[in-house]
């Protein structure tokens, strides 16, 4: 008999996370302590519980722009090397404790230079933190591999420089490149020189697209920029006609949706975050149900654990409750993510065969 799909058992299951923001996953207590240490005096409250509630409430506004405003506080307290190391180490430990065995955590070096750090120093500090956190987790029996994604802000003009750093650090713990920020008015094609450079360097990159803006954002990310993955991509559902699904017929896919599915372009879906930013009405109504049924390359992610008040365990538990998914579907999400990771093929295969499949086999055949 399969093990019950409880929170405790889902936490035990090996999980893979492709879309998680370092500055969106701080512990509330750490935010307060770092604010006190660095002299940051703009927090709405210094009570841990009240601060957690404030972040969640601000993020649950239904507006991507309002959601992004919460980052002023988290970014504000991680402007020193020590702060970056601490936050990155805690990130790795928290993910490992949640059963994550592989994670790609993204951050924007350009957001952490207010007190004089260079982009290179920011990256070094974060990678040092990941190394410390993974070592501490391993000492407790939780093995995790953490790689960084370097993010450029789509409203700024540093993408070519950050892309070069992603290439320079790719043998030191950086898995790839990303652009993030408000989508509307800032199309990915503004950063075409960065993406062309990355392709010449045989480098991997994902692009935030199809969350705050619709199909044109997804089309540009893929067809103009050549994205390997779509950061969210949830609004690809706008190119799927479910009204055509009567009398046993499958929904009709538009040309873009058909292309995304045929090419197995991974969708970095983050259900709770997508609901908070207005990209989905609720978990039960989230397009992940339809996209899973249609066998898109669906992956499950946290996006911002602090703002969304979520973990990989809670995201998967929410999907089980909403869609009655069995262990086999959770394993499918996990294998999808590992197949889509910016990691060499043999390393991906080893994690799938040696960690993910045995871990789920124990739960399915408990």
Automatic annotation (TrEMBL):
Q: Where is the active site?
A: 211 (proton donor)
Needed cofactors: Zn(2+)
- Which species is the source of this protein? Nakamurella aerolata
Instruction: Report the co-factor binding details.
Output: Binds 1 zinc ion per subunit.
Q: Which UniProt keywords apply?
A: Hydrolase, Metal-binding, Nucleotide metabolism, Zinc
EC top class named in words: hydrolase
Alphabetized PANTHER family for the sequence = ADENOSINE DEAMINASE
**Sequence similarity:** Belongs to the metallo-dependent hydrolases superfamily. Adenosine and AMP deaminases family. Adenosine deaminase subfamily.
* E.C. no: 3.5.4.4
Q: What would you give as a GO molecular function for this chain, any one?
A: zinc ion binding
Domain named Adenosine deaminase: residues: 14-357
Binding of substrate occurs at 21, 23, 181
What positions does the entry give for Zn(2+) binding? Answer: 19, 21, 208, 303
Purpose: Catalyzes the hydrolytic deamination of adenosine and 2-deoxyadenosine.
Keyword Hydrolase carried by entry: yes
Would I find Calcium among this entry's keywords? no
| Pfam families referenced in this protein's UniProt entry, alphabetically | A_deaminase
Q: Which reaction does it catalyse?
A: adenosine + H2O + H(+) = inosine + NH4(+); 2'-deoxyadenosine + H2O + H(+) = 2'-deoxyinosine + NH4(+)
Q: Record's Gene3D superfamilies?
A: Metal-dependent hydrolases
Q: What is the official name of this protein in its record?
A: Adenosine deaminase
| Single GO cellular component term | cytosol
Q: Where is this site: Important for catalytic activity?
A: 232
Q: Name one GO biological process term.
A: inosine biosynthetic process
